Amino acid sequence: MTEFTIEHKPADIVKMYPKASDLFKKKRIDFCCGGDRPLAEIFKERNIDEEEVMGELNLSYQNWQKEDHEVIDWDAKAPGELIDHIVHTHHAYLCEELPALGKFVSKIFRVHGKNHPHLKELHKLYNAFKTEMEEHSVKEEEEVFPLIKEYEENPSDQLLEQIHLANGDLEDEHDTCGNILKRMREITEGFQPPIDACNSYRITYARLAELESDTFQHIHLENHVLFKKL
């Protein structure tokens, strides 16, 4: 493939060109929860400059293709293998990062909240996200993922129906978490700390940006790869 067009969907673009996620985040183009619509629809709805975005996307893609990159074809992975990757990579990251980052979010709210009122909303949003993702991960690991692995070994219509019902709830939860992250990005101006920010403030924003990136990839793999296999 030489270039992307406005008929491509963000989710499909990220599969072929993972680095496109950086541009989509910068332009606030959803490639995970709402990534299954053609770019043409998104540009029209959001009044985004089509030529500017497509030009930047295809130029970076052409430069990227000249380099030596190993792209994992997640579509070719078996469901069980993909589940193991999600659990050992993304769930493990959340398990370690959410409590630790929560302390930083609380600290900057306590110390700087008076002069930076948005930190109060950030604190609420983060704790809502933390609760949602922790409960979501438990549900996946204890209920849904075992069903998918069982179906992979012994497929049946009954199992598939159970999985589809469970996946509907999971995708709704993905939407909730995605919207929280979008709001956090909005009130922090893209996780850009103010000029007078202390070191803890800067560390918090950097880790929030990393959390956003990991979560979007996590949701992308589930919504657009794992669940579509079923």
TrEMBL record:
GO molecular function: metal ion binding
Lineage, opening ranks: Bacteria, Bacillati, Bacillota, Bacilli, Bacillales
Source superkingdom: Bacteria
Subcellular location, record wording: Cytoplasm
Metal-binding keyword on record: yes
Listed GO CC annotations: cytoplasm
Iron in keyword set: yes
Name used for this protein in its record: Iron-sulfur cluster repair di-iron protein
Hemerythrin-like domain: residues covered: 83-230
Record gene name: scdA
Keywords: Cytoplasm, Iron, Metal-binding
Matches recorded under PANTHER family: IRON-SULFUR CLUSTER REPAIR PROTEIN YTFE
Record organism: Lentibacillus kapialis
